[in-house]
Design goal:
154 residues; mainly alpha; 2 domains; two-stranded antiparallel ribbon; elongated; MacB-like periplasmic core domain-containing protein
Length: 154
């Protein structure tokens, strides 16, 4: 059997009954998407049940304000809760979107996290590559910044 026969047969089949072939291709595509989405859901559930929620959340709960940043009065309220023993600790954090133009047509975007090194992080800190046993509190002193490997590679 020659390869040309397979190509001729497939082409003739598409010309004669293209709707059925198109439907079959759509069904295959939907099936593949279903399998991929089920895998993603499975991985998410696995991470939810086996991961440490406190580490991924940065503590027991996270309070955010979408409409406006927290004011000093808001932070005073959290300090009162800590003094009263209602909460064991809190750490304010601000997130901003930063960008750097490396070339005329190339702009790199990154997230800037502003934290208080005396109180951040409340739970397990990040793993450092350089220095290998780095502590965030020591590295953020004196106006220093800490960047991840992805930003350093850019």
């Amino acid at each position: 059997m020659k390869a040309s026969m397979y190509v001729k047969y497939a082409t003739r089949s598409l010309v004669r009954g293209g709707q059925r072939t198109l439907l079959a291709l759509c069904c295959i595509a939907v099936g593949v998407m279903t399998i991929v989405s089920l895998q993603l859901v499975g991985f998410m559930l696995n991470n939810a049940f086996t991961g440490n929620v406190r580490d991924s959340n940065g503590g027991d709960i996270a309070v955010t304000s979408q409409s406006r940043p927290f004011t000093q009065q808001d932070l005073t309220f959290f300090a009162q809760l800590q003094r009263a023993g209602t909460i064991t600790g809190y750490t304010p954090r601000s997130s901003f979107l930063g960008s750097a133009s490396l070339a005329v047509s190339s702009t790199e975007y990154f997230t800037v996290e502003v934290v208080d090194p005396a109180t951040f992080p409340l739970v397990r800190g990040p793993d450092f590559i350089s220095p290998a046993n780095g502590q965030l509190r020591a590295l953020l002193g004196g106006g220093q910044v800490v960047i991840d490997q992805a930003l350093a590679d850019q």
